[in-house]
Every structure is written in structure tokens, then in C-alpha cells.
Predict the structure.
Amino acid sequence: MKLSSSQKNLIGSIDETLADNEYKQHWHDWKWQMRHCIRDLDTFERYLGIELPAHERKAMQHSAERFPISVTPYYLSLINTDNLVNDPIFRQSIPSPLERSIHESEMEDPLHEEADSPVPGITHRYPDRVLFLISNMCAMYCRHCTRKRKVGDHDSIPARSEIEKGIEYIRETPQIRDVLLSGGDPFLLSDEQLDWIITELGKIEHVEVIRIGTRTPVVLPQRITDDLVSMLKRHHPIWINTHFNHPCEITNTSRRALAKLADAGIPLGNQSVLLAGVNDCPRIMRALVHKLVANRVRPYYLYQCDLSEGLSHFRTPVGKGIEILENLIGHTSGFCVPTYVIDAPGGGGKIPVMPNYLISWSTNKVVLRNYEGVITTYKEPDSYEPIFCDRKCDVCDLQLDLGDADESKATGIQMLLSDHDKTIALVPEGNERHTRRDD
Ligand SMILES: *Cc1c(COP(=O)(O)O)cnc(C)c1O
């Protein structure tokens, strides 16, 4: 892979002693990239040969003291210095003066990841899957990080004993069929450490799939080495979700990293965050999802920016996300369209949000509108015989020939809709009317 002239200049200012033939080798070595992460504004200015405006610099420094900086030389090299302050890479990696203005509605841990944590590192929010934080390290500190509270805490790997406790919890909780490894970035662990964790999880019979959330294909694509990929390949089914936010992040180097992962049979997904001043534009999002699928990455989620501290300047109204979906659904391939979600503050989990397509309905017809604005009707069947489900699958005409058919308790709306559960209402805790009744 050839280096661009800006990458050559950059590597030259990082290490003036390098000989000409050493440039490429170092640049493509992820450990070299990590050793030379940019961690302060002075270095940032020196490497790019620029000067930040003096009046803003002080406030940026102030932000950096609260929420530290770390950017890989590779990711830094993608910044277009001709339009620095509007550059999407710059905005995601270098602190804004606005990070210090923390609003009343913002929280350290809006998603209550710690409250829903049975053992350190595990968040068990959904019935059948867990989030398992196995690394405190990141290749770069995203300014929009939802776990900003933890950024730069201590760049360390949780102790082996701590990870063992997480694995133990998963082993003892048979409902868990999907383990989502995240962090930090799991790919900042060594191949050996990662291999050990995945091997241990793979031995657990009820774990059907392992997912890895990593931003390395975006900010440190050099990490996707042949060794890493051949190790992962031995542990299928492995799924990977990465985190591209802007089409300019898809470079030849990142394309190659994605191709290696896809060639290893790993299904790839992408989770973007909707960020004001970065990608809050239907045309940018459309270009991004097209580039993603061209590289075998399926857009998975588009996140509404969380209520974490210091992110208010990144937040958009929810309407912006709906407008983006309105511009994608129908206008482009269905598999280009991510699910737009709001991760509910307080630990309610991800809530999908969509434009409305169902306009009205009667007893035998529904009225719908399509992406073009055409209003149409769908005539419902006259002779549908409802199936009463008491969960007795062995006497049902439908053929669910599964010995281990899921018998877990129905919850929420699913429970209200079911035939076998007699609950008729969900009542908020402490509802005054109900409290009076109990007296
Ligand atoms: C996002 C998330 C998951 C995975 O959710 P999916 O919708 O299955 O991708 C699991 N646990 C926690 C705590 C999460 O935040």
C-alpha cells in the first residue's frame, strides 16, 4: 500500500530518524501506530504543521484536561487541514471547547450500564445476550464516546481474574446465547489474549454466537493482520460490528482491512452515531451506506447521540434521524438502511424509531403511504382464523419441531399480545390510582 504525501510528511515529523525504506513498514505496523498516538494539542499542531486559533486553543486544552486526547497517526492523516474546523475527522478526534459545557440533562452513565452489571465488565440488559467489556483501551478516543466517563481512566486490560469472573457469569447463565465483546476496543488486546477469551466462551454450550464491536477498521486498520484474522476464523460464528460515521473514513487501507475480515467469512455490520456537524445530512449518510455495502458491510444501527456528559454539541433533534431514514427507505437498497435507535436513558435499551407508513385502518383494510408519497390500501384477508396459542406446540398444527422451543416468560407488550398470559395492563410502579386501590 502506497502512502499519501501527507502520510509521508506526518511520519517524517513523528520520527525524523527514519530511513526512506522504513516509512511504509512502520506505518503499517499497528503497534508503531499505537506508540505514536497523538495525545496533546502541541503534538497535534506540530505533526500537521498548523496552528489552532489562539482563542479556541485555550478552551480546547481545558476540554482535553477533563476528557483526554488520543488519535492514531493514521486517523490524523485523514484530516483535511484546508478546512480544519469543519473536518469530520478533526471533529471526532480533537476536543471542542464546548465539551466542558455539561447540561443538566446529561449523565455520567446515561445507559445505566453499571447499574445493570451483575459482575464487573458485564451488562446484562436483554434476556438472551450480554455486553462484555474486555478492554479499557482504544486506538483513539472518540470525542462522542458514550462511555466518556471511562475514557483515559487507565489504559489497561482488566485483570485476567476479572475477565474470568465475567466468563463464569456467562457460563452459569444459560439464557445467554449471544456475547457482545466490547470495551474499549477488544482488538487492542493481543491475539493471544483475545484467543483465550473467545476459546473459553466457545466452550460454553449455550453461547451460540460471539460478536465483537471494534473501531479499529476505521481508526487503526493496520490492526487487522493476517494472524488476527486466521485466529478469528477458527472460532466461527463470529460477527463484527464496526463504527464508520463518515464516507471519508473509508480509505484504501480500511477497505483492505474490511476485505480481510469479510474473506474470513465474518459478517460485518456498522454502527454509526448521528453527529451534528459530522454526518447530520441525508446525502452524507447515503454516501456512507453505499460505500459500506460496496465493502460488504451491512449498515446495522444509526444511533441517536446519547445523553452522556460533554456531548451536547454533537446532539441533533430526533427529527434529523427520521429525515435521514425518509431519504433512505425506498430510495435505495433495503440492506443499505440501518435501524435508527435511541438508547433509552436509564437502561431501557435500544428503541427503534421510524417514519410512519401506516396511515389508517378499518376492520378489513389498511391505508399506507410509500416513500414517494403514494397512498395505497391493503385489503386484509376475510377468512383468517386466529391461532390460539397456549404454547402447547406438540398439539399445534404449525410444525415447530424443536425439542428446546423457547419457554421463557413473555414480557412487556409481547405478554399483553399473548394468549397464554392473562395480564391485561402494564401499570407503572407507584401509580397513584393503583396505590389507592391497595389501601
Ligand atoms: C446494544 C446492546 C446489546 C446488543 O443489542 P442488539 O440489539 O442485539 O445489537 C446488548 N447489551 C447491551 C447492554 C447493549 O447496549
Remarks:
- The chain has a mean pLDDT of 93.
- The chain has 16 helices and twelve strands.
- The domain at 122-354 is CATH 3.20.20.70 (TIM Barrel).
- The pocket of pyridoxal-5'-phosphate is lined by residues 123, 125-126, 129, 131, 180, 350 (CB under 6 Å).
